[in-house]
Write a structure and sequence with these properties.
9 helices, 4 strands
Length: about 200
């Protein structure tokens, strides 16, 4: 079975725009996903990236225009100035890690729910009640928000190191063996790769 390492930042707008297309692709090809939430800001610092707020105004304007166009193409609601961005992504990342370890729910739905909460619902994914609600909606025990915090913190840190080692520099990022795919707009390439066409 082909293994996909999915590196994601739970506050990334482009992770939100990716939706659950990855899950649909892997289902078609019988592949499996390991969700690896990681600290995108620390990744930027170590790979030559710049946080959005520190980018040149030309880049900031283009980023917002591109996000808006893509959201319209996908029919997804998008607030270009969300009330809770940026926010601490560690608690939601720990919850995703705990849910993956526990099993029993829909990980794809949960992974998508965090950035959707930021970019479409104006919710703060650093808040315990929001995390509990999203866990429950995806079929997980809301108590996972409080369990495994040490394991979550350790895995979150390890995911950053694994991301750097794998050549990751943004989110969403998909790694299949030596092949790397950056951005929700490369999901079609990932699909073709899994089909043996790229």
């Amino acid at each position: 079975m082909t293994q996909i390492d999915y590196y994601l930042a739970t506050i990334s707008p482009f992770t939100y725009l990716a939706g659950t297309e990855l899950e649909a692709i892997t289902a078609r090809h019988g592949a499996s996903i390991t969700y690896r939430p990681f600290d995108i800001m620390a990744c930027f610092a170590r790979t030559g990236g710049t946080p959005p707020k520190d980018r040149h105004p030309n880049r900031q304007v283009y980023r917002l225009q591109d996000m808006e166009r893509r959201a319209k193409r996908l029919g997804k609601p998008l607030n270009l100035k969300p009330a809770h961005f940026p926010t601490n992504m560690a608690p939601s990342s720990y919850a995703l890690i705990a849910a993956q370890n526990a099993g029993g729910g829909d990980l794809g739905a949960l992974a998508h729910s965090f950035p959707r909460a930021v970019w479409a619902e104006d919710r703060d994914i650093a808040q315990d009640d929001v995390i509990r609600d999203l866990l429950e909606q995806a079929g997980f025990d809301p108590g996972l928000a409080d369990s495994g915090l040490l394991t979550g913190a350790e895995t979150y840190a390890a995911n950053l190191e694994a991301a750097i080692e794998a050549g990751v520099f943004g989110s969403p990022f998909y790694v299949v063996g030596e092949q790397r795919f950056w951005g929700q707009d490369r999901l079609e390439d990932l699909d073709l790769h899994l089909a043996g066409k790229l």
